[in-house]
Amino acid sequence: MTEDEKRPAGRLYLVTTPIGNLEDMTFRAVRTLREADLIAAEDTRNSMKLLTHFDIHTPMTSYHEFNKIPKGKQLVERMSAGETVALITDAGMPGISDPGEELVKMAIEAGLAVSAVPGACAAVTGLTISGQATRRFCFEAFLPADKKERGQVLEELRTETRTIVLYEAPHRLVRTLEELEKTLGDRRVSLCRELTKKHESVEVTTLSKALAAFHDGAQPRGEYVIVLEGRDRGDVVHERQEQNAAAMTLTEHMALYLGKGLDRKEAMKAVAKDRGLSRRDVYRMLLEAEDAENAEDE
After folding, report:
1. DSSP conformation class of 187
2. Are residues 185 and 256 in the same domain?
């Protein structure tokens, strides 16, 4: 057996870095970065400030959205040869809304071990201090830049019942809030700004009130985490019932509820609610439908 064959395969570490406050750097993160053979960083100039602050002298290479495939292959080759690579992003957890996701896939496909060194994540940090429901949430990061894709995502979010977490830059914040209000309607929203930094703030308001403030001259400053309340589940169910009802005849609609065990009176009440009609209107329309059917039989 050769020396190369004896050497174990390396490992990929996803090392979380502070999202603002340098004191959030963990002891384990510092040790992992010092002990790694190579650090792959999204922005080496930005990361050099962090490494210098913590007296870390490990060699560094760039790994970002525009080189993630060719550089990813090189990193996998080095790990397969036994080296340990620590991946860091500009701030927060690698793999969350950044190209680290691709490197993780490539490492796993190559049979390499992947470990995470956890720490601060802007999405979770914003969610926990937002005052919004935290048991169920969905994370959309930055909305797509492509207009068509952006519209599709917004339409999907329109009926989302979980709390919604988004990222946005200050110069695009107002446009995004306008699109959210237009598609999703006015909702309770928490605007979390500059998390863990000196000027951290959380404003709990509504989309309409937030937009009114910005239109009156308030200026968005810093990076934002937008935490938006999900839609009421009952409203979503009712809307879907209305959509389904529109595709059925009144007789078919009645048959649906009668088949569920409701008596005729309760079935008419349910149909009326689904269609936005009075029970008297439903009764009248059913009689007219029955009369028309009997006339055809004659």
Report:
1. -
2. no
Of 109, 89, 87, 107, nearest in space to 98 by CA: 89
Is residue 3 situated within a structural domain? no
**What pLDDT is recorded for position 238?**
62
Domain count, the chain: 3
- 0.85 exceeded by pTM: no
Q: pLDDT under 70 in the chain at which residues? A: 1-8, 234-246, 291-298
Domain containing 60: what range? Answer: 9-120
Output the pLDDT for position 1.
39
Distances (CA, A) of 158 to 39, 69, 170, 183, 254: 41, 34, 23, 6, 29
Cα 127 from Cα 118, distance rounded (Å): 17
List pLDDT tens digits, range 110-124.
999 999 999 999 999
With both helix axes pointing from N to C terminus, report the angle between 173-184 and 147-158 in degrees, rounded to the nearest 10. 50
Last residue of a domain, one of 228, 250, 280: 228
pLDDT in tens, 207-218: 999 999 999 988
Residue 178, judged by CB atoms within 10 A of its CB (0-12, 13-18, 19+), counts as middle
Domain-ending residue, one of 181, 202, 228:
228
3-state secondary structure 78-139: HHHCCCEEEEECCCECCCCCCCHHHHHHHHHHCCCEEEEECCCCHHHHHHHCCCCCCCCEEE
